[in-house]
């Protein structure tokens, strides 16, 4: 992995599982004449390690249910990791109390997927933006807070005179702009964006995406961008992390990944992108079903659908390996030069 001292955020061997066993009485079962306790878990994240470098936009992609949003929420402290460690500028933060996390809350902000649910319908836009500024800047006067609110509203293309309106008076795109303004209001360094444009019309997506890119340049922001839209990744991302069933398959610079994907799953994803070029890669149709995250397959989690599988793939979990071109791939076939 990248040297820890150079990165803004480091994720090390992250695991997250959710119990689906119910309460204690639901877990008790009779087997062979004995009363036993049976517990089942959804294994959402399985040993993910990532470094987010200052000033970059690291995009995490994968199909629904692969664990990318769980990674985002765990990094932000909204979920507690089952195992593993998270560092911010070299300081471990996953084991801190709410009070100890306060200095990091100002540096780390999140933009949520659904702009219709992430804004409080009982608060005006002015109140929505005033709350985080006042909480994190106790010394600011009311006039300074008003000026700050007007500044961030203008920065996201929202008229400051709309501050007395409520969120239901705005369209989805306008609401997402307000959500971005709320994240920018406390001058963060690091923003986690969890599919921030997927709930918007296509005509509005480009506007919001360009707004986020402009904010990145002007404020030197670092993004962890969660998405399933590969067209967005190609336009927005500095590097791309591909996830499958809670594990990291491939990590590479954006241009490198789109020009020569190495992992079989990444190759299948890239082949599905509609393109007009004559020399586009042939569409790769994966066979089989996505395994359940409750009972993970042995070895490589992708081996049941991989066209290059061998016995080692079924038996041994591949490690993320750094290749000469800077790509990191978790694949026995690549390691053995079969691919």
From TrEMBL:
GO terms for molecular function: ATP binding; ATP hydrolysis activity. Residues 9-270 form the ABC transporter domain. Coiled coil: none annotated. It holds the Pfam family oligo_HPY. It comes from the Bacteria. GO terms for biological process: peptide transport; transmembrane transport. InterPro entries: AAA+_ATPase, ABC_transp_ATP-bind, ABC_transporter-like_ATP-bd, ABC_transporter-like_CS, Oligopep_ABC_C, P-loop_NTPase. Keywords: ATP-binding, Nucleotide-binding, Transport. Belongs to the ABC transporter superfamily. This is Peptide/nickel transport system ATP-binding protein. It comes from Neptunomonas qingdaonensis. The lineage of its organism: Bacteria, Pseudomonadati, Pseudomonadota, Gammaproteobacteria, Oceanospirillales.
């Amino acid at each position: 992995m990248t040297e820890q001292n150079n990165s803004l955020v480091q994720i090390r061997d992250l695991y997250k599982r959710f119990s689906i066993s119910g309460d204690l009485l639901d877990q008790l079962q009779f087997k062979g004449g004995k009363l036993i306790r049976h517990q089942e878990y959804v294994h959402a994240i399985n040993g993910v390690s990532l470094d987010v470098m200052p000033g970059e936009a690291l995009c995490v992609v994968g199909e629904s249910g692969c664990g990318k949003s769980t990674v985002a929420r765990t990094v932000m402290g909204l979920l507690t990791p089952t195992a593993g460690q998270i560092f911010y500028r070299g300081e471990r933060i996953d084991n801190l109390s709410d009070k100890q996390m306060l200095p990091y809350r100002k540096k780390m902000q999140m933009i949520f997927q659904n702009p219709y649910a992430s804004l409080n319908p009982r608060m005006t836009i002015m109140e929505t933006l005033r709350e985080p500024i006042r909480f994190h800047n106790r010394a600011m006067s009311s006039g300074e807070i008003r000026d700050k609110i007007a500044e961030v509203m203008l920065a996201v293309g929202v008229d400051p005179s709309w501050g007395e309106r409520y969120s239901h008076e705005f369209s989805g795109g306008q609401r997402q702009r307000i959500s971005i303004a709320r994240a920018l209001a406390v001058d963060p360094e690091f923003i986690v964006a969890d599919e921030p444009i997927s709930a918007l019309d296509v005509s509005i997506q480009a506007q919001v995406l360009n707004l986020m890119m402009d904010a990145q340049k002007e404020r030197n922001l670092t993004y962890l961008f969660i998405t399933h839209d590969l067209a967005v990744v190609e336009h927005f991302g500095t590097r791309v992390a591909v996830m499958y069933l809670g594990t990291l398959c491939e990590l590479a610079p954006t241009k490198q990944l789109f020009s020569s994907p190495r992992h079989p799953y990444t190759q299948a994803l890239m082949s599905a992108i509609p393109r007009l070029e004559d020399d586009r890669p042939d569409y790769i149709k994966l066979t089989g079903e996505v395994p359940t995250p409750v009972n993970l397959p042995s070895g490589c989690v992708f081996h049941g659908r991989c066209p290059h599988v061998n016995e080692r793939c079924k038996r041994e979990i591949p490690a993320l390996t750094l290749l000469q071109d800077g790509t990191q791939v978790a694949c026995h076939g690549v390691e053995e030069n079969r691919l």
